[in-house]
Every structure is written in C-alpha cells, then in structure tokens.
Target: DUF4238 domain-containing protein
Amino acid sequence: MVTKKQHYYPRTLLKHFANNDNKLYVYNHKANKEQYVHYENICYQNYTYEEIDTKGQRKTDNILEEKLSHYEGKISKVVSKILDTEIDKISISDEEIKIVWTYLFLQEIRTNSGRVRIITNFENNFSKPRKSPIELNEIENNKEKNNKEKIQKFNKIFKEKNNLEDLLKYFKKPNSMHFHIAIGDGFITSDNPVISTFGPQNKPNGFQIIFPISPNFCLEFQNDDINNSNNLLVQMTPDKIQYVNKATINTANYYIISTNKFDITQQSYIYNRFNNKNWEMPYPHSNN
Model:
C-alpha cells in the first residue's frame, strides 16, 4: 500500500493541538486567511518524500516515508507519555531525552525549508549560515528551481542505504544542552514546529531549541548561557511564551497553528510578518 498523503508534521503530534472535534485554528499563509480545519488536512504534500528521476518521473516507493515513520513512532510515545501523566509524576529517561534530541533535529530538516537548508549547508560546507528563515516564495517560486532541486536531492540521498540513520547518529546532544519540559498556557505551533533561537543581546552565546507539543507544554534544550538548571519541569513566564509564539510565527512557511482563535496581538504580528513589506524581523529571531 503506497502512502500518497505524506505529512511533514506528523499527525500523531499535530493532534495534541486539536480540539474535541479534531479541528484546530490555522493561519493559511498561501491563502492569506484564518481557517478552522481538521488536523489531518494540513502540513502535508502528496508524495513529498518520493524521488523524481532525471526524466521527471516520480519513483514512488515510500522508502523515505517509512524511515521517517520509524522515528515518528518513537517521539510520539514520549510525547504521549508526557501529556498523559500528571504533572508532578512526569519523569523521563536518558534514552527518551536522546529520542527527543534526535527527533527535533529530524523534524527540523524534514520540512521543505529544512530540506533546502540542510542541502545548502552541505553544499557550502556549513560556511555561510543564513541570518533569517527561508521564506515561502523561495520554496514555491518557479524561479527558485535550485531550491526545488535541493528538496529532491534530499529525498534521493536520504532514502538510500543508512544515510539518514547515520546523519542522525552524528548529531549527538552536547553536555552543555539541558533538557526541560516547559509548562505554560497558549503555545502555538507551525509547519516548521522546531524553533531555534540565540540568547538575548546580553547573552550572545546563548542558544536554545524549542518544540511546542501542546497548548500547555513544550520541550526545550537550552545551553549553559541561557539556563544551566537540570530541573526537568520549568514554568514558562507569559513574556517567554509570547517570545516563543513570535518565534513560531517567524519560522512558519505554510501554516500557523493554534488550539484557540488567534488573539488580536497574534493577528497583528501575523499581519506584519507576512503582509507588511516594511516590517523587519526583530532580534534574536533574525539570527535563526
């Protein structure tokens, strides 16, 4: 059975933002409007992980899709365990932290912009990092043929042998990165759900990776310069939640996703991000 509808943000993770009717609120960037949709009907493309050969013919074999599904199964168990456990009883093993770290890197590179970025980095030997997120028009514009070729190159390379598995093994968690489960109220997410930002200007060496998993929880790795605490659970302040949500909007390409309707502050920020040509992305998000 060949899978046609291939999600780059797994349904097993997206569902945790859905309401009881399995729907959630989205800002659809391409349509430039807010919608209320079933979680299975966003963050996918038909045959997105299939290879197209030199003659322009699609080679549908689901090899890469099945590789990705293997890691999806692992992270989904960890996320469900966290969300299904009473807060004061949540625990997580070193092996589960390793699963989270590996999956966050995988999720980061499996989206359209992630595939473009990782192949660009390989081609440039990681010597020219971007100062801002990849924009939708860089992916969708027919003039950007090179970026579409990079997406295909990703598919071709990482379906072969153990290339994907070997890459993920290479990116091990540094001891300086501390894992936390952050608790808050009102986290949103996007089609690029993994957020990586630098520290504030007084902590230029700070770095953190954040992954919202529900409206009330997100997973984060922070280096010593931002937070050297080894506490598993941390309470996120309202200001930090707003910061994370802005970063989520900044890194989105296709969808911004919320359990609840977007409030006026979020709507204003979304408008500026995608429709105000004179708007400039603030530090530190512009260093993504």
